[in-house]
Amino acid sequence: MERRILTYRSYVDELLARDDADWEQVKTEHLTQIAFFQHERLIHLIVTVIFALLTMATVCMAFLLMAFGAEGAVGWLLLTAVFLVLLIPYVRHYYILENEVQKMYRQYDRIVAKTGLNFYF
Question: Which of 52, 67, 72, 108 is deepest in the core (most CB within 10 A)?
Answer without folding.
Answer: 108
